[in-house]
């Protein structure tokens, strides 16, 4: 695990049922922060669109799904959850039989910039190594400076990407 700047000991553990409430609490805080930031910076159109579409909470079923996969983690100081990463394995992306898809990472505001995010990514890399899973794919919002720098620091090759979505 990388060195952190925290005074207390940080532990990274697999996501379990007992963590759901705290994980959801951090998620709600991040969503509020994001919408507030769009509004205060005057990006009204983006704010209106995001406010209408963004999930305000992490449904229990979704957390159960991630916990079952075994490759999502929480960062703990004592028993307090201070951050989390949601990851799922995918079969046959391109020619790779198994890929880890890193979907969402968040660290509570008061614990940022102290190495918690890097420690969560490091836990996912160890999991991939132990399970012989090669590529890791991250869609952790590369437009966001914090996640772009974090991924680059953690050794990811951050590329531009576009996604085409179809639904009826
Ligand atoms: C992105 C996020 C998870 C980073 O967590 P963190 O615990 O603060 O990250 P770390 O302390 O491990 O940071 C590691 C490096 O990433 C970079 N970094 C982190 N936050 C940054 C920011 N806001 N701006 C630019 N670089 C940043 C820095 O280089 C940092 O190293 P340094 O502190 O030694 O300079 C956190 O900012 C967060 O939860 N943001 C809100 C949710 C979000 O945007 N998630 C990503 C989209 S899914």
Please outline what is shown here.
The protein has five helices and five strands; from the N terminus they run βαααβββαβα. The protein has helices at 20-40, 44-53, 60-69, 116-130, 145-153, and strands spanning 10-14, 73-77, 80-93, 96-107, 136-138. The N and C termini lie far apart (44 Å).
Which ligands occur here? coenzyme A
What portion of residues is helical? 25-40%
- Fraction in beta strands: 15-25%
Structural class determined from secondary elements: alpha+beta
Text of the CATH class of the domain at 10-18 and 58-153: Alpha Beta
Number of strands: 5
What does this protein look like?
The protein has 168 residues and is an alpha+beta fold. It has a domain at 10-18 and 58-153: Aminopeptidase, CATH 3.40.630. The protein has five helices and five strands. The protein has helices at residues 20-40, 44-53, 60-69, 116-130, 145-153, and strands at residues 10-14, 73-77, 80-93, 96-107, 136-138. A five-stranded mixed β-sheet has the order 1-2-3-4-5, sandwiched between helices. The N and C termini lie far apart (44 Å).
